[in-house]
Amino acid sequence: MEHKTYNLKNVLLETGFEYDNQEVIKTKTELFCIEVENGQIKSIKPNEPNSNAIDAKGHLMLPAFKDMHAHLDKMLFGLPWQAVSSKRRTVKDMIAYEQKMIPEWLNTSVERTEKMIDFLQGYGTDHIRSHFNVDPTSGLDSLKHLEKALENKKSTFSAELVAFPQHGLYYTDTLPILKDVAKLDAVAFIGGVDPYSLDGSIEKVMDQITQLAIDNNKGIDIHLHEMGESGMNTIQYLIDKTIENPQLRGKSFVSHAFALSALNTTEAEKIAEKLAHAGVGIVSSVPFGNMIMPIPTLRKHGVEVLIGNDNIQDHWNTFGSGNMLQKANLIAELYGYGTEWQLSRTLAFATRYKLPLDDNGNQQWPKVGDEANLVFVDASCSAEAVSRISPVKSLIHKGNIVF
User: According to the lineage, what is the superkingdom (predicted)?
Assistant: First the structure.
């Protein structure tokens, strides 16, 4: 696709930290002109306020946001409002409900997925990791409909897809379909869900998922809601499998991993070391209340922690806002990241670790040649954007101006 060339003026960029007795007390910024060509940043020059360039109006330019866990194929977004039902308490309850409702949802899923993408883009998100159902009820239709919506949005939005056997590999006859889907180029990850409680075996399920990933050169991203021994054993099993198969390193993830929330500090430190050593990441929607994930401990040991909204409006949960800045804000408040430096670092959870300044205040983004995936927010710096959940004013994806 051809991208036109254009210039932006009055673009606010972070340039460094201001210190007082070695404490960061302020983030320095300046206005610049940015030239975009063929989807990339071609030049970064001193500001020319009187030029004919597109006026960014002094808004802060940040890396566009990445939502790393969602289910674009089965949101209820675009349908009449519906809260969750107290009658559906277990994963198996949800499976029975999905088997009944999926045929109906699929009738309008393409247009509703596009509406959901519009909604996410309004909050500055230009990339998503989306799981899609693979099960006997959906067949390949969930994937086909999702691909059609993504194709219609491809100039302004990108996605990486996880084949997700929501109804179990063996609880329903899903394995044959998953084997076919695993071969498709559109699929980046093989998923799974609660192997022990749903399918009755950690080893049997994890061996299948791991082998499918290896055979088809995919990553792994499994949902794990299980607490206690079965939850921890599943995490350990994936760690072991990733160490045995180094090609999975950096490509293996556990979504939710709620069992980690029940660990004491020593236990959390130990498993964080193991996860980091194996290159296994954790994907979280940042629960709070009676379940707090040890995200600071995981990060301290170098575990890749990805953040996503998960449910925005669906039959599982309706509290996802779709706003990745709000997720960063929640992390900052939950774990006490209140200083200028800490808040600026917390933005990384919304951008998949791409930050304007490094930990020492050296400017590291944007650089000439970077892909022009840009969000403009009404804030004076990253710290304010996180703390205030500042409004998003514009989004650019691969040089294409979304709004």
Answer: Bacteria
